[in-house]
Design brief:
Number of helices: 8
Number of strands: 5
Strand content: 15-25%
Structural class: alpha+beta
CATH architecture of the largest domain: 2-Layer Sandwich
CATH superfamily of the largest domain: GAF domain
CATH class of the largest domain: Alpha Beta
Shape: elongated
CATH topology of the largest domain: Beta-Lactamase
């Protein structure tokens, strides 16, 4: 079937009712765990780590999972690994993102489509990545994009040591899991950004009085405008390779020390 991003999903195979029932139970468990995520009480990295762990529960055959986010940096894109459910996945992530910049999660995130391999050692899609990972004893990979309407948030990749570990049915379940996972990851990103902006605003509000005091000091010395005084602060900041507030604090502290010295000497 065609997904909202325009790529064509893989065909599904039939399974015994017992196998399918077990797989569906695993997916339902993963979805229940996703629904239980309280992003307001967890950091973005904690949410992503949970999503990676839940993916292993939800996708049959998975032995480990990694979650990556897509950073849009015009005119290019950058895929960034953020969570791994197992140390061997973290090792694979290092190969994919740091060493080679090639692999299934990058493909899934950048192209917005599901990819899989049952024999990484001979995989032509990733001629450098596949053999490197195959030598680690990991032969199967399934990577599913995290999709929102008109947007790719990132991708989830699951790995297994055996060959051909991920069937069409596992791919289907992975795609079903990825839909709510994309919402959870996106919400966590939005919340993290809001928290970052709040901290920046608090910092700005706490430093404003010091900067205003320094501007007043410079105006009293030069008779210039507030704009000219602030421009002077910025010049000092650039010359000293430090923040404006640090320069302002130094000027205020120096003025206080000089006033005290004059007072004690009078």
């Amino acid at each position: 079937m065609t997904n909202p991003m325009g790529w064509i999903g893989e065909s599904r195979t039939t399974h015994s009712s017992e196998e399918s029932g077990g797989d569906e139970a695993g997916l339902q468990a993963g979805l229940t765990e996703l629904a239980g995520l309280v992003t307001g009480s967890q950091s973005l990295d904690d949410v992503l780590a949970s999503v990676a762990t839940f993916a292993v529960h939800a996708i049959p055959g998975a032995e480990g999972a990694g979650v990556a986010v897509l950073r849009v940096e015009y005119p290019s894109h950058r895929v960034e690994a953020r969570a791994a459910s197992h140390p061997f996945v973290a090792e694979i992530d290092d190969i994919e993102y740091v060493t080679l910049n090639e692999g299934p999660c990058i493909t899934a995130a950048v192209e917005g489509r599901t990819v899989r391999s049952g024999s990484l050692g001979g995989e032509k899609m990733w001629p450098r990545f596949g053999p490197r990972v195959g030598r680690l004893g990991v032969h199967s990979a399934l990577s599913v994009p995290l999709l929102l309407p008109g947007q790719v948030v990132g991708a989830i990749t699951v790995y297994a040591r055996g060959k051909d570990a991920f069937t069409d049915h596992a791919t289907y379940l992975g795609e079903q899991f990825a839909s709510p996972a994309a919402v959870a990851v996106h919400n966590a990103q939005v919340l993290a950004k809001a928290q970052e902006l709040t901290l920046q605003l608090k910092a700005a509000l706490s430093t404003r009085p010091i900067i205003d005091q320094a501007i007043g000091l410079l105006r009293s010395r030069t008779g210039g405008t507030a704009e000219e005084a602030f421009a002077r602060l910025r010049e000092l900041s650039q010359a000293e390779h430090t923040k404006v507030v640090v320069v302002a604090q130094r000027l205020v502290d120096e003025a206080v020390r000089n006033a005290r010295a004059r007072h004690s000497g009078s």
